[in-house]
Amino acid sequence: MTTYKAIKLIKRPEPGPVSPDIFEVTEKELPKAGSGEILIKQRQMSLDPAMFGWMSPDTESYIPPVELNTVMRSSGVGEVVESNHPDFEVGDRVMGMMGWQEYALSDGKGINKVQADVPDETVLSVFALPGLTATQGLLNVGKPKNGETLVVTGAAGSVGSIVGQIAKAEGLTVIGVVGSEEKANWIIDELGFDGAINYKTDDLRDQLTKLTPDGVDLYFENTGGPIQDLVVERMNAHGRVVVCGMIADYDKEVPSPGPSWVPVIKKRLTIQGFTMPDHFDQIPTLLQQLTPYVMSGKIKHRSHILEGLESAIEGLNMFFTGDNKGKLIVKL
Prior knowledge:
It contains eleven helices and 16 strands. By secondary structure, the protein is α/β, with parallel strands linked by helices. The strands form three sheets. Strands 3, 5, 6, 7, 8, 15 and 16 form a seven-stranded mixed β-sheet that branches. Helix 4 links the parallel strand 9 (149-153) and strand 10 (173-178). It starts with a strand and ends with a strand. The model has no long low-confidence stretch (mean pLDDT 93).
């Protein structure tokens, strides 16, 4: 009998850092693929801020919470090792929702073949959830226009860094909000952003005013925090706010108050929240939008690799500390 490791969510997290006791590492018997099924050996697994919402008991969220005593939800990339499905063959490299486990049994729904000849970490850093989220949020929700000014928070993160680079390719002035000087230097020197704001050390109002002399047309929100009010104040008439994430509030029992609605009225702002599960059926189209940027060298990325399935448990807290440098990935 062959077994493999999986990690189950057994408790709901409390506010604050994630405690290891909400998870349970288990050994499961390796299944056989049944009719219409595929068995995937997962090679790399993505850690994403969205997981904090998935672990909560909130049944009114955009996706049902992970049920207790089931494998924790996540996306990954792997190889089909057994197939009884007409659309997949043994040896196919695939990506999709696979969970915190070394093997995943699937009926093929939500699993997509990887067509690009790039490393696994590039698949998860660019072509999986981060790149798809950035593409949908910026191009299809934000609708950027050449010559506009974009402010993106979490700009050195997996989504924010791609948002900024696509915006630069579309002719926008891009200002990124980050949490360290190293990250500020990276997004300017390596990714080509026009400016950076360190929310931990800079005078936020002064730096924002200096870097956006013509105001802000498009605001891509990944984090929340004090700069949110200031950016909304700087928005130009008919500006757009794309709300993708609020990591600053995910570990709080009571979220921080949002910006005043007075500027929303005065400037006729459009504010739209979005989540990727609403658009999973559009993944082939989103990949068609994203791929030309990547293949023409306009998208750079960096990955922060953790080793072994169990490293995912402590790895989640890096989203709060900011210790990760690049897309958080668990190598199995």
